[in-house]
Amino acid sequence: MRRAPRVDLFMYARAVPLLLRHPAVFVMPLLAAVVELLVNQLSNLVTDPVGGLGSSIFGMLVQLIYLWAFGVTIIQANNIWRRGRGTFDEAWEEGRLKFGAIALAAIGFQFVVWAASYIGSFFGAGMIGLALGALAAFFLIYTIPAAAIGGIPGTLALSVSIRNVRAQPLGSLILALVFFLIWYVAVPLGLPSLLVHVSPSIWSLITAAVRAVALAYLAFPFAKQYDDIAFSGYW
Q: Is the pLDDT of residue 132 over 80?
């Protein structure tokens, strides 16, 4: 008999001590945050003289960097969930071997979300494009874990993600909400009230550090949830 994938709500709390006990998980998110700072500086130098033309390309590059770093961090988090330990060197080596798969999965994820938002914009209301983009992102939420720890090659990770969301819609919705609340609410909206009196340079550094912490934490529920669904025997 097939058994439905379970929803593990306790993993969100259990991820906190695991993160604190394994600080090496912060390495890739911190590297991605530092690269974002450098790319933003380069973007300003290149695009400011032409009125911001081309800034979206740099923005997409930053997103790809974060997605690849997230993939390596998910590998490390998955090792910690399964074995109680997970070194950065192991995750980096596995991520290096899977670089093509993770990169193609990240590009496919970005393209589908962008295409959905673009199609929605033809209906004349910005909210429709935003809603379609969010819906696409929801169904593709397991794309990076599928490529990073599922061994799924490239863009095939997109279809695997859709299949996993259909297998566990409630758990996937909770995971998506947690990601949204942390990445798009807590980080950008919580920081202004804390950093109102700091200089722009310090602001950038602290923001990068907070994003790295958020990404490192999120790797744990993403890894655990994908593992619970993909290897549950449901398929």
A: yes
Q: What is the mean pLDDT of residues 199-225?
A: 87
SS (H, E, C) the chain: CCCCCCCCCCHHHHHHHHHHHCHHHHHHHHHHHHHHHHHHHHHHHHHHHHCCCCHHHHHHHHHHHHHHHHHHHHHHHHHHHHHCCCCHHHHHHHHHHCHHHHHHHHHHHHHHHHHHHHHHHCCCCHHHHHHHHHHHHHHCCCHHHHHHCCCCCCCHHHHHHHHHHHHCHHHHHHHHHHHHHHHHHHHHHHHHHHCCCCCHHHHHHHHHHHHHHHHHHHHHHHHHHHHHHHCCCCC
What pLDDT, on a 0 to 100 scale, did the predictor assign at position 1? 47
Distance CA 212, CA 194 (A): 17
pLDDT of 43 higher than 80: no
Tokens of 137: 């992102």
Whether residue 92 contacts residue 102, with contact meaning beta carbons closer than 8 Å, is answered with no
Instruction: Report the distance separating Cα 174 and Cα 226, nearest Å.
Output: 13
* Torsional sign, CA 166, 67, 37, 195: positive
* 121 CB burial (10 A radius; 0-12, 13-18, 19+): middle
- What is the spatial distance between Cα 95 and Cα 88, in angstroms, rounded to a whole number? 10
| 158-172 per-position pLDDT tens digit | 999 999 999 999 999
